[in-house]
Amino acid sequence: MPNSPSDRATPDRATPDRSPSDRSPSDRSEAPRRVTVQRKGPLLMEGPVEVELEDGSVVTSDRFRVALCTCRRSRRYPWCDTSHRDRV
Fold first, then answer.
1. pLDDT digits over 61-81, tens only?
2. Each residue of 11-49: pLDDT tens digit?
3. Which of 17, 18, 38, 84 has the fewest Cβ atoms within 10 Å of its own Cβ atom?
């Protein structure tokens, strides 16, 4: 499921003393996000989302559902571009 050009890298919006992962559930004003795990596919996540990559950069998507790549073959990593599919 490709993502739109509105998916972008942004600076981390966390305050200097607290990152988003340091906040307790009671600090969050939104309901929990639903993640759907597929055996041979991406993680499907209800959006909008922010994804922190290994290098510390943060990418965001404002779509209502995003597909996060788990095979690392995607040319749009961390977003899935269906590269995991077997080709005929």
1. 999 999 999 988 899 999 999
2. 444 444 545 555 555 555 667 778 888 888 899 999 899
3. 17
Q: Does the global pTM surpass 0.85?
A: no
What residues contact residue 80 under an 8 Å CB cut-off, 6+ apart? 1, 41, 42, 67, 68, 69, 70, 74
Q: Are strands 49-52 and 58-61 parallel, antiparallel or unpaired?
A: antiparallel
Q: Where are the domains of the chain?
A: 34-88
**Type of residue numbered 20:** P
Beta-carbon contacts of 45 under 8 Å, excluding residues fewer than 6 positions away, are 33, 34, 35, 36, 65, 66, 67, 68
Whole-angstrom Cα Rg for the chain: 14
> Any idea which residue has 């919006």 for tokens?
13
